[in-house]
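Shape is hard to put into words, and the shape of a protein is harder than most. The fold becomes a row of whole numbers, each drawn from a learned catalogue of backbone shapes. The outcome of that step, for a single protein, is printed below.
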Amino acid sequence: MKKVTIMCRVSSDEQAKGYSLDDQFDRLTDYCKRWGYEVVHVIREDHSAKSFDRPEWKKWMKLVKKNELETDELLVTSWDRFSRDLTDGLNVIRDLSKRGMTAQAIEQPVDLNIPDQWIMLAVYMAAPDVDNQKRSIKIRRGVRQGLKNGYWPRKPFFGFISARNEEGKHIIVHDPVKAPIIREIFEEVAKGTPQNEIRADLAERKIKISRNNMSKMLKRIIYMGKIEVPALDKEPMKIVEGRHEPIVSETLFYEVQQALAGNRKARGKFEPKYTKLRDDFHLRGVLNCDECAHTMTASYSKGKLGKRYGYYHCNHCKKQRVSAIKVHKAFDELLKTIQIEPEMLVLYNAFLADEMKMSQVDNKPELKTLKAKLEQIESRLIKSQDLMLDDMLEPAEYVSIKARHLKEKKDIKEKIADLKTSTSEFVALLESGIHLLENVQETYTTGSIHLKHKIVGSIFMEQLSFDGKKCRTPQLNRIFDLLPNMDKGLGKLKRGQVKEIFNLSPSAERGGLELSSALG
């Protein structure tokens, strides 16, 4: 008695048109009864036959390959139930033949032992394949026309939801919950915040975005109100204005593209920089591992009773993991050791004022050069836009060029702003700097997280390390090398000696600064 497997298949759209799995099952089982076949397995599935990547089919093939199912023949009602792809269908039939099995359609029977019958089989299987291709072309053209008109006829990306306008046409609008998240991600990347930190921060808020998805998000022009129309036949790819409201501005989008390009060039060359500052781990990014000297990160761990404890730890060598409380106490003690005499502050004030006067030169030539560069960039932007509109420049190339030029414009404008900084602003900075020197430890303790990082960056020329007991730093700012020594050995200064003293070059590097007393 021949042992057979019967396969009933229908896609979701076919189900809506009246096809039925039960009807196929009844016809196949009646056929097997008439011929005296034993049905050993039934495949029922509601997936498209465009490919054999179908759950029930794969389960059956797994049984066949492991010889856990004895089957002589696979039966279907018609060949389009078996496959709607000519190439894949013929390949699978050959594979089944090698395993000693045949495939047959009860309504379109063929005898594959006769070579000419393979032509008939190809005809049966080619018809649905051609139908698929025709429908696919119509769908692609319809979708492309919608894209050309500025609509998004596909599944909306994260940050958008589907809606319909007054004309009843399908459009996308902002998701009130997710759109602000997209805007936040772009803003953080533009600031220089690493993507892994952004994802970690979102994860704490129960928002999970994979690394791959975030990378794709940041490159999607749909977020700045543009639509990419893919190439089709002889029509090239083009970018059009979307009919939806952008989530981020063009300027922000291009700033992010420039930041991403810079990160790709620098990847693997520098230590990670933590620009997402946190009060609870205010030394993250400036504290080095005492074992391998790589920058340490920080996170919380839960104790046995569920209480959270903060730790600085090294993800490079994974050898150092220290309590954040211990490190912060040791650093406070380190700041207390930085004491500057009032007389030295007066001298420091005189030095800065003197240096400021010496540096006040005529900035007009440099300002003129920078303004000329701005005009040149504007001209290049207009020319590149004209080239794109004339189809002489690919839209993707234009996006890259615009991102680079916008970054250059921003840098030049910042330089111009720096050159125009007034003397009164210098004085204000001078006074705040003196106040900081008078109260380093107190200012640090009560200051914001941004002020803390500024203090660390200005005082400690190299990063800190913690050996479990003491905080150490290889080198302080050179001004601290000089000020304490002046109090010890220089004595009273004669009039006019200020400039001479500050021109002294410390030839020997001072030893690293560390705590005088250990902390348990």
Notes: The longest helix spans residues 117-148. The chain has 19 helices and 15 strands. Confidence is low (pLDDT under 50) at residues 265-272, 484-520.
